[in-house]
Specification:
This protein has 257 residues and is of the alpha/beta class. The protein has two domains: 102 residues, Periplasmic binding protein-like II (D-Maltodextrin-Binding Protein, domain 2, 3-Layer(aba) Sandwich), CATH 3.40.190.10; 124 residues, D-Maltodextrin-Binding Protein, domain 2 (3-Layer(aba) Sandwich). The chain is built from eight helices and 15 strands. Strand 2 and strand 3 form a beta hairpin. The chain is elongated, with a radius of gyration of 22 Å.
Length: 257
């Protein structure tokens, strides 16, 4: 909490206090209302929402708004100062730092990526080579990997997603995600897609696994907190998976007792 609390203070912008007369004629400075905007990765968004609620409970004069849009949007928003804090679930690119040298990176968490299938798919494990071939559109029927015959529908995050960028690095290598894949702009939306689309497969942030999803093993390993924390393929902890960004260290919020 300390780290994100400091970020909330550094990212805050508010109107200065206004003196108002009391009944006895003395003046009292009115408490300012501080608004903080947090924008970017939908992987980091649920954590940011919980942290913002906790911060608002500590300081009721602060209003924190959290919205998604993807990691690239988070980096751009922080760089351009269209938001006080940006969120990213990937490492910040050298080109992004070059464009905005003032950007400050704060790592607050780690995450992993899980490959999940529609609950009715009767395949429980794939090799990483099979997973790559499926997402590339080279394997198109579940019978090719030991399942009941049926068309495989690939779903993916959109370009600019930090989760997609990490998945491409870790799984796809030199291959490309199929051009026919269903694209969604958030982890929540892609989870809904795979749960409701027969024969589908996708990848999502580990934090979005719930009772509705069916994660599968890759090379014998299921996505669990232990396998992700082991920091080795096929389910490593992702570098930069929980990042918040500010441009410089602004301190516009007044000190409170």
């Amino acid at each position: 909490m300390l780290g994100i609390t400091s970020m909330m203070r550094l990212g805050a912008c508010g109107e200065p206090g206004v003196e108002t007369p009391d009944a006895d004629g003395t003046s009292t400075e009115a408490v300012e209302t501080v608004e903080i905007s947090v924008v970017g990765s939908t992987t980091v968004q649920p954590l940011a929402e919980l942290l913002s609620e906790a911060y608002e409970a500590i300081d009721p004069n602060v209003l924190v708004t959290v919205s998604g849009g993807g990691s690239s949007v988070g980096v751009k928003s922080a760089s351009e100062q269209s938001a006080d804090i940006g969120m990213a679930s990937r490492e910040i690119k050298a080109s992004e730092i070059q464009e905005c040298p003032e950007i400050v990176i704060h790592t607050i968490a780690r995450d992993g990526i899980a490959i999940v299938v529609n609950p009715d798919v009767d395949v429980d494990e794939l090799s990483i080579d099979e997973a790559r071939a499926i997402f590339a559109g080279e394997i198109t029927d579940w019978s090719e990997v030991g399942g009941t015959p049926g068309i495989i529908t690939v779903a993916s995050r959109e370009e600019g997603s930090g989760t997609r960028s990490a998945f491409e690095d870790l799984v796809m290598e030199d291959a490309f995600i199929s051009a026919t894949a269903i694209l969604q702009s958030s982890n929540g939306a892609i989870r809904t897609t795979v749960v409701t689309t027969p024969g589908s497969i996708t990848f999502i942030s580990f934090g979005y696994l719930d009772d509705s999803t069916k994660p599968i093993a890759i090379d014998g390993a299921f996505p669990t907190a232990r396998t992700i924390d082991a920091a080795s393929k096929p389910y490593p902890a992702l570098p930069g998976a929980g990042i918040v960004l500010t441009r410089g260290t602004r301190t516009t919020i007044p000190k409170r007792p």
